[in-house]
Amino acid sequence: MAESENMFLRAKHRTFSGLTEDAEREWKGPFCFIQAADPQLGLMKAWRDGDCDGGGDEWAEEVELTKQAVEAVNQLRPRPRFMVLCGDLVHAMPDTPFRDGQERDLKAALKGTDPSIPLVFVSGNHDLGNTPTPGTVEQYCNAWGDDYFSFWVGGVLCLVLNSQLFYDASACPQLKEAQETWLEAQLSRASSSSSTEPKPKHVLVFQHIPLYLESPDEEEQYFNLQMVVRQNLLDRFKKAGVKAVFSGHYHRNAGGCHGGLDMVVSSAIGCQLGDDTHGVRVVVVTADGVIHRYHSLDQLRAQGMDEDLRKLLQA
Ligand SMILES: [Zn+2]
């Protein structure tokens, strides 16, 4: 355990690994990163068995897929600046039987990630419980790092959020309040420039539950955020100039750009609930925008990222 601990300390720092925050505030040209979601160790067998509430007693398939993702990402040139995992790291809910084994094996699978590609962890409903408590949030933070934080990379401000506090904070209202206060400060910081703080080239958000799957006014359901919460966040994100919100949770690719904000919903490294392949999303950040495409693990391993994305990085 102590050995693998080092890799994960990175996420606990509110600044980016190994680099001073100041150096990363400066735009130095296009770069890419990897966005992935839902390795969710244990869901594939549970889903096949039709027992998603219990089940989850085997997770060798997800371990293998995670290793394939790591291998594919390590090979990419230019190297991704980071890889973010947008929640549901494991399937077993807090304080259930297979939790420790799943967390241990995911950490072991991720250990092969090239040390120059920091890992950024986002908390999902399975990581925190559908109704998180101060206890489950603390467990998550001890295992994976802060549940919300910001970091700069190459002139871009990234906000990692705990979407479970938006979804149901009935058992931890103070934590919700604390994230709200922090978020408000981050968003106003993002939209105002000062002599000491340059304006970010772009602002990106990472959270587990999508604001919406296809359209901002779609009906509420298990896979999106409640209408009032969604509208509130959309308004604030747009006002602060957030360019894109990256999420998972749906186990299918979805999303859409509305009013200048790109809601990106990525399918899973692990269990597919639709027709997508196991994969990750390659995201290219240029001065003008944020371009992204989901790649299957097989495709990424065999051919790397798509040619047109690679060209954008050479500019
Ligand atoms: Zn989820």
TrEMBL record:
UniProt EC number: 3.1.3.16
Family classification: Belongs to the metallophosphoesterase superfamily. CPPED1 family.
Domain of life: Eukaryota
Organismal lineage: Eukaryota, Metazoa, Chordata, Craniata, Vertebrata
Cofactor(s) in the UniProt record: a divalent metal cation
Record field: catalytic activity: O-phospho-L-seryl-[protein] + H2O = L-seryl-[protein] + phosphate; O-phospho-L-threonyl-[protein] + H2O = L-threonyl-[protein] + phosphate
Compartment(s) of residence: Cytoplasm
Domain Calcineurin-like phosphoesterase: 70-252
Listed name of the protein: Serine/threonine-protein phosphatase CPPED1
UniProt keyword Transport present: no
GO molecular function, one term: protein serine/threonine phosphatase activity
Protein species of origin: Stegastes partitus (bicolor damselfish)
InterPro entries: Calcineurin-like_PHP, Metallo-depent_PP-like, MPP_CSTP1, STPP_CPPED1
Chief location category: cytoplasm
Keywords noted in UniProt: Cytoplasm, Hydrolase, Metal-binding
One GO location term (cellular component): cytoplasm
Gene: cpped1
